[in-house]
Amino acid sequence: MPSIPGKYQHYKNENIDDYFIAVGVPFMGRKMMAMSSPVMEITMDGENMTIKNSSLLRTVEVKFKLGEEYEEHMPSTIIKSVTKLINDNELETLSVIPETGVKCGRHYLFTDDECVVTLTHDKAKTPGKRYFRRIVS
User: Fold this and answer.
1) Cβ atoms of residues 92 and 86 within 8 Å
2) CA nearest 100: which of 118, 123, 119?
3) Cα distance from N-terminal residue to C-terminal residue, the chain
């Protein structure tokens, strides 16, 4: 069974532009984000989890307790999220934008070699996917 905690290097996207359009990211921002290759670092301490994404553009770190609501600060809004452990190799974050009621989410699927993050949004026609390879020290 793969371990969830670790460092992961982004290496490819799938259908990411539609997702970024739905989220409201402007054209230049979409292109920069699609071309970025962030490192995702996940740590766990019991029920407490931290997910940190670092790139040349910015670093975003979110700390939360599994199953409890928390706030995520986005460039244009704050969203309310809950992350749950589905099984030993899957996490799911369900979010809502309070001002609009629009729902979005992230599904993390872990293997021994990688993590695939599927991004969903009520306004996106197709889910976007970001692929990360596990960094082995």
Assistant:
1) yes
2) 123
3) 19
Confidence of residue 31 (pLDDT cuts 50, 70, 90): confident
Please give the Cα distance from 65 to 22 (Å, whole number).
28
**DSSP β-bridge partners for residue 62:** 51
- pTM, two decimals, is 0.91
Say which residue the tokens 């599904």 belong to: 107
pLDDT digits (tens, 9 = 90+) for 10-19: 999 999 888 8
Task: Provide the token pair at 98.
Answer: 């309070």
User: At 123, phi and psi to the nearest 5?
Assistant: -90, -5
pLDDT for res 1: 55
Token output for 33: 């984000």
Instruction: Assign 3-state DSSP to the chain and report helix, strand, coil percentages, each to 5.
Output: 10, 55, 35
Residues listed for the chain: 137
Return the structure tokens found at 119.
């991004």
* Contact status, residue 46 vs residue 65, Cβ threshold 8 Å: no
